[in-house]
Amino acid sequence: MTVDLDAVRAIAGAMGARPWFTRLGVPLTGDELALTQVAAGGYRVTGVDVVPDLAAAKALVLDPAGAAAADADAVEARVLRDRAVAAAGERAVLGDLSAIVDASLEPTIAAARTALAAASIADDEFARVLAGAAALAAYHAALAKACGMSDHAFVAIDALFARGRWPLGPHAGRFAVL
Amino acid sequence: MSAALEVKTAADLAQQPQEYQDAVRKIVISHAVNELYGAQVFDEPAVAFAPTPYWKWLTCRVAMEEYGHHVRFFQLGRDMGVPEEKMIPDRTAKRPLSIFETPLESWEEFCVIKFLADMAEILQVEDLLHCTYIPLRNAGRATMPEERFHAKFGEDSVSELVATPAGKAKVQAAIDKIWPTLPAFFGGSKSKNNEIFRKWGIKQRTNDEMRTDFIDRAQALVAKYGLTLPELPAESVA
Fold first, then answer.
1. Count of structural domains within chain A
2. Number of CB pairs < 8 Å for A and B?
């Protein structure tokens, strides 16, 4: 297998310029709906729910029912990482993945704080939740792309973040997005 | 000797006595190694234990911030000419802190680590805030807000967990497991390194002063939630 580390570097390079969390709660465009449906397919759910605001999103992600999907994502990410490491070597793969973490640290938290302030929510813990979700999605997408799987649900989820949305994951048989 | 000393840059550091340079390097290496090791053995694995997506993403962010602290001290070390391999846990001869040998087995244990161990980390970073090597002082200042948040995260999560008798019992069990490993975090009572750090104004307090302060703060903190600290084995406080 060939590992596409250029794709990983491209994600790292884009982190600072993305319009993080700037389209929360507004109706989905056709492009966003298509991406959300790809994401939903990754969890074998159909149907999409647009969550209206950050308060509703917080209630949803505090539901323990969502933990299983996140745990399955972690298992899938480990499989992809092991595959990439086996093909390209640990140092190269982990070095480029670390660059995503480096590049995401400041812009994601700054954007999350801005989005929460715009919604008159003073909650720095919640800002870190948004920032963590966005960075983790970029990390997962980088793994999928590195393994040549551009149609993976991880890539669609990251693309939604890159468009200013917050994909929240499967919930009650549908895929929720803010 | 150290009262008026202020070393502003890595270039200035290179002009200082060898003992001072070595002491600053030791502290920077220690922070770089332990920040990364802590993220690897506690924060990253804790994501799997977190009970909801909210806590998973928050834990993920905390792990990234700890990693960011490693990067901060790593870059500081590199500016000072410290070889990179000395600042990476699996490549350096420097042993990580003994607390990291405790295997993380539950969400409650992770919350207790943030609740108590991150307070120990705050004390260590606080002690750098008047350090005579200004870049290290600045790294401490930049790190402090996130460390304070991590400790608050620990307290908030513990306060939620103790709301039920079952949760409180799990938190107490986690404290009973983790607490005995923590006082050693501050080093030996007769540490030669600490003596040198204080001689040069790199650190301000003895290991025992910091340890006593930590134990006092920890006792007050756990009492607030109706929890207790177990007795410490004698060797862990000397």
1. 1
2. 70
